[in-house]
Amino acid sequence: MHETIARIAEHQAELSGWRRDIHAHPELGFEETRTAALVAERLESFGIEVHRGIGRTGVVGVLHHGRSPRTVGLRADMDALPILEANTFAHRSRHVGRMHACGHDGHTTMLLGAAKHLAATRNFDGTVHFIFQPAEEGLGGARAMIDDELFGRFPCETIFGMHNRPKLAVGRFAVRAGPMMAGGAFFDIDVTGVGAHGARPESGIDPVMVAVHIAATLQTIVSRNVPPVETAVLSITQIHAGDAYNVIPQTARLCGTVRAFSADVMDLIGRNLKRVAQGVAQAMGAAVAVDFRVDFPPTINDPAQAEFAASVCAELVGADHVLRDPPLIMASEDFSFMLNAVPGCFINIGNGDVEGACEVHNPAYDFNDAALPLGAAFFVRTVERKLAASPA
Ligand SMILES: [Zn+2]
Ligand SMILES: [Zn+2]
Asked: What's the pLDDT band for 391 if we cut at 50, 70, 90?
């Protein structure tokens, strides 16, 4: 076993304890007051300078050593999801309807483990910024921290983050250069017709018929407008209309999401979505209002930093345990905002591939504590190599 992993694994019980405590007390985006306080107190106990309230509930730890002006940023996310946990183990959620179903409890713990090790060993020359962000799950925590002058106050030459990956064995990493995860948009299409008696359609304009024609026609955008060599998905995930058997409603609403790997494709889909909705509604005599908003840019790893991150992973677990060309991921990730501001890399860390290994966002998910020393060791070796002490 790599020496850094072995040193950190000596504290496995302590790390697992932290992780399970956070798991038992999940907090939604921008409500992470207990988690942020726990992170801040722990960083202070390691002798790390702490800044609270960056992007509302975000926390930044600053660790200087030596004289070098070089800097590196490490990022973890702290928020949970509005899911009712199905697990029955002792560290299950104490907060009904909230759950760490994406493993951010593990991400926070791995970065705390790295902070503890780096503060104790200080085998580097420069400044480390430990960034604990709130509200990764669609509420814009990364943007809130950046708007709060994150990189102005805590400059980072490069930045690194990770997400656990179920179905990838513990002891394996996946690192992809360039686009890795899709950008995401959400949309609402509000159709207004003319309500009528269900038996007298001629006296109204049926918004349900308009909505289903819009829904069907929207499925031609990816198949007919997006170049076939590009990758995109458009899903209608909600359709709402009506309350009674004998009433043609006045309005109908369609909602959904679009994922794509480039801003050009996202723009193209947004333009076509509006044109289709307006054109179909007009053809059928209804009015329509479209709100199409891009919430996440694609997650794009700087090629040089991806090479660096892969070499750190290879040092820890061997090159044959580092997946270098993993499939593109259609989900989105808030860290993309930080990667747009600072070159860096987002990696995946194996969370276990045993039979029945549970996917994230499932009510039976749990972060695998066996991965904690591996993720912490990645952060530690990233710092020790990026900020290698210069020869005297
Ligand atoms: Zn998630
Ligand atoms: Zn997540």
From this structure: low
